[in-house]
Amino acid sequence: MPEPVFLAQQVLNGLSFGALLFLLASGLTLVFGLMRIVNMAHGAFYMLGGYIGVVIATLTGNLLVAVIAAIVAVGVTAFLVEVVLLRFVRGQEMPEVLLTIGVSFVIADLCLAFFGGDPQNLPNSVRIPGALAIGDLVYPWYRIFVIGLAVAIGVALALVQSRTRVGAIVRAGVDDREIISAMGVNIRWVFTGMFVVGAALAAIGGTIGAGMQSILPGVQNEVLLYALVVIIIGGLGSVAGAAVGSVLIGLIDAFAKAWIPELAYFTIFLPMALVLVFRPTGLFGKAA
Q1: How many Å apart are CA 249 and CA 145, to the nearest integer?
Q2: 141 has a pLDDT exceeding 90
Q3: Nearest Cα to 50, choosing from 250, 223, 196, 228?
Q4: Helix (H) or strand (E) holding 133
Q5: Which pLDDT score, from 0 to 100, does residue 157 have?
Q6: Which pTM does this prediction carry?
Q7: Helices (H), 124-186
Q8: What pLDDT score does 121 carry?
Q9: DSSP secondary structure letter of residue 127
Q10: Rounded-to-integer distance, Cα 92 and Cα 77, Å
């Protein structure tokens, strides 16, 4: 029988990893929900944000400044990608996917050239020190902070979607893009704005995530794979589905790595396969 402390620690590990996945997957699913683009460069945005966040945090010793710098840098990159490249292949699914794969390779090579191939992490000086102690359970405050940040961003996204004019425009765009145009809204800039917001969420995830796991060459492919599994389980285009999928995958990953590490990847993809068989649109997805 597993000890309660072990179970509690694995639950917290799963929730903190799930929180990181939500920061990543929510941006990816927002972009797909409105633009119908499976942005294969999303993992590269995460990596770029992580590298920039680590560098700025090391120079300034301030995590907030590092996050803002990462958001600005990745946001500008995403803006240029959308305006200069994606607009010319709008509505063409395969060219859009291939184009974002190409962008991912370019960003990965540039990161390797500028930041090198060594794993990099946030300096300890900018992380929240100490640990929560309840009886025999000791858990780092920084990971609890990541969980709280993901919850705050998730609530903010839900409120923006349900209570603001911007949210109404986005919901209308997801259901029927022609409604947006009929409202007199420039749909091109709505697309651009959502693409930048999605990339900014990846940048936040990269910077904050660098305090939990290293940023290094190849991480963009690994995190993109996890994010795709999350949004397939939750339902493409659904932020609520991304939240549920992130928690589910985070918990499965934590317990699988602790109990059956040799089958860790199998346990991640098994629920995705079952969802695809029994509910192809995902838990919260809608039929096209």
Answers
A1: 19
A2: yes
A3: 223
A4: strand 131-134
A5: 87
A6: 0.92
A7: 141-163, 165-175, 177-182
A8: 92
A9: S
A10: 22
3-state secondary structure at position 215: strand
**Burial letters 217-255, b for 16+ CB under 10 A, else e:** bebbeebbebbbbbbbbbbbbbbbbbbbbbbbbbbbbbb
State how far the Cα of 239 lies from the Cα of 217, in Å rounded to an integer.
28
CA 178 remoteness from chain centre: 28
Q: Give the amino acid at 231.
A: I
The predicted-structure confidence for 249-258, as pLDDT tens digits, reads as follows 999 999 998 8
Q: Is the dihedral of CA 14, 231, 239, 154 positive or negative?
A: positive
Residue 127 pLDDT > 90, yes or no?
no
137's enclosing H/E stretch is: strand 137-140
Tracing tokens 């240029």 back to the chain, one arrives at 80
The string of pLDDT tens digits covering residues 45-85 is 999 999 999 999 999 999 999 999 999 999 999 999 999 99
CB 21 within 8 A of CB 230: yes
Contact 278, 271 (CB under 8 A): no
State the pLDDT confidence band at 1, using cuts at 50, 70 and 90. Answer: low
* Residue closest to 206 by CA, chosen among 219, 193, 225: 219
Structure tokens given for 121? 């992490």
Tokens encoding 46: 């995460």
Token representation of residue 189 = 């800039």
Predicted confidence at residue 174, as pLDDT, reads: 65
3-class state of residue 139 by DSSP: strand
Per 3-state DSSP, the chain is made up of helix, strand and coil in percentages (nearest 5) of 75, 5, 20
